[in-house]
Protein: Xanthine dehydrogenase family protein molybdopterin-binding subunit
Organism: Reyranella aquatilis
Amino acid sequence: MDTFDDSLAFVKFGVGQPVLRKEDPTLLRGEGRYTDDINLPGQAHAVMVRSRNAHGLLKGIDLSEAKSMPGVLAILTAADLDEAGFGPLMCPLNIPQRDGTPMKTPPRWSLAKDKVRFVGEVVAMVVAETALQAKDAAEAVMLDIEELPAVTDPEAALAEGAPQLHAEAPGNLALDFYFGNAESVARAFAEAAHVTRLDIDSQRIVVSAMEPRSAIGSYDAAKDRWILNVGCQGVFGLRGGLAKDVLKVTPDRLQVLTGNVGGSFGMKAPPYPEYGPLLLAAKKLGRPVKWTDERSESFLSDHHGRDHKRVAELALDKDGKFLAVRLTGYGNAGAYIYPPMPATTNAVKNLIDVYRTPAMEVNSKIAFTNCTPVAAYRGAGRPEGNYFMERLIDTAAREMGIDGIELRRRNHIAPEQMPYKSPANNVYDSGEFRAILDETLQISDWDGFEARKRESAKRGKLRGRGVGSYLEVTAPAGKEHGGIRFEPDGSVTMLSGTLDYGQGHASPFAQVLTGLLGIPFERFKLLQGDSDQLKAGGGTGGSRSGLVGAEAFLEASRKVIDQGKQIAAHVLEASVVDMEFDKGRFRIAGTDRGIGILELAKKLHDGLALPADVPQTLDVAHVSDTPPSSFPNGCHVCEVEIDPDTGTIELVRYFMVNDFGTLINPLLVEGQAHGGVVQGLGQAIMERTVYDEQGQLLTGSYTDYALPRAQDAPSFTIQSHPVPAKTNTLGVKGCGEAGCAGALPSIMNAIVDALGGKHIDMPATPEKVWRALNAG
């Protein structure tokens, strides 16, 4: 592997500089172009007809009144999709069962047929001249549904006699997942001097992206292809899944376009049921069809996050050395299955955290229930793995009478043990876990806590402190597009298969290239949202974009330089072997004769004639084999105050030290960490979904579902302790989801500390805290 030239970090606007985001002026002026901002000539409007029953037989759909209402152009049901030959949405990843057989993946039809399985499932789509006309007509569609019993709890769904959702999944079991060595884990627990056991949950979360989902379907009859404008996390992958599974066409028959995206956190990544009917209606009507979700529908139809019920166990010897960790329990898939990595493979990868743990075991039963489907949500099981381990450690420390910090130090993986292969088969390449813990304790004034606790007590408040170390395993290797295109106006377009939905990709990618190619930072612009212009792309997810996107651009820039040397040699009448490139200029070695890369690009656009054996352009469309997973890690320390009369929690101090490897843009990294912590805060103390016995969502609006606001967030003290990764050229490690991974354990450990060690589950709402304080 080539190494990155450290001198490039000192280029103005280069790697390591806290450069402002390129898109911010546009967004702050309200000039962003989100899907709902797009209005195509002649477009019609769609509204979805959704089931109000969580479970039932769909015996009929009466469209007679709705069809006769003003402005109505069409109403689509499952029969129309069947007639067009459309297929169902399919789970793109099949995780093997314990016995090696595939997990159960019942089809999810875009429009329900025969049966409905959760409140909010789409049954029909009404298209009219205006959105209001479509909404009026949708309310007139009459559904004849024979209600069936519902089940919303995964453990109850797997019990004998539970309502059955899918014939393809007897007993509602989607996946019986197992990882580990049962014999070695059983032996470790049998020989342990102490075993700590916790019943611990990670509750269901409503993702609540700032921008609701929206899409516009179009059909180009002359080219016999569809166009979908939609907010997503990667146009290349979305096109592939939608074309193959739903439209049943080759990917070239569908173009996916994405502009600005107002948040996603995993939720907008997969194809959704609304997209196929929109495209079919556009073809039938010969005009674009637009749909935008209302927030009340988003609560029901956007994929939810988390939702695991666990028993976590840690075996220790008499000195507190970890012998084994075991995780057993249930994951709630909802009504349909999407890759259940949070409760399975990602739980495996992240449970070990930063600790030497010789043996591990993860048993997960994933159940179908009459709830909204669950998919990835910021971290997708990574924060939970760290949360389970850190809560086990704090609990074990109390039970064994060992200081929690000392217990962590005894079990840290040391730098001299790198590369370290964990029992999860991860190979950690770098990390200084104890040093980061010590640094976090120092900046948080850990030793001064008792004085602060006494001061809180004088004001009638309970004060607690918590530490949360974390190590996150980012997404694995794949393929990524890194394109560089020199435009006639002198600008340079960066093409990437990642997709910015709030992270700010344009600046860090430009920072990498301005140092390598010597092109001014302001000349670069980023193109990610047009599937027609990409050759590959994994989208954005799993804290991977900085790593894979930068690596693809690094490789592409080398190709640009190689092509440029050949072209410049012809222009300068020199041998290619004598050409050098430095700071944006091709030069004949040992002379001052040369030509700038942008000047060379201009000559090419002006019609420079070149021999056939010389590259005809500087442009490069490169597909990179991306590096393997990286291992960002760090430590958070939180202090809380609790009002014992009300149970109200306030985060009063918050500190974090993170190892994200080489920082391309420290300013953006801090922003990602802040956002992740606030989302972790939301899950820790306020966010939860609640269903009643009939499967109705009781927390279906912001009246009943609490999100953190600015006033709930503490002031953050953040420091960086970078240990560059050894598995990619830049040495970056990823940062997008790590804030959640450190926040969940540090906040909950602080709350439990304030409660005197009594474990409570998230969210630690005032009512739950008050009851814990007053129990008995």
In short: The first strand starts at residue 44 and ends at 50. The mean pLDDT is 96. Residues 305-474+629-774 form a domain with the Aldehyde Oxidoreductase; domain 4 fold (CATH 3.30.365.10). The chain has three domains: 6-32+477-625, 33-148+225-261+268-297, 305-474+629-774.
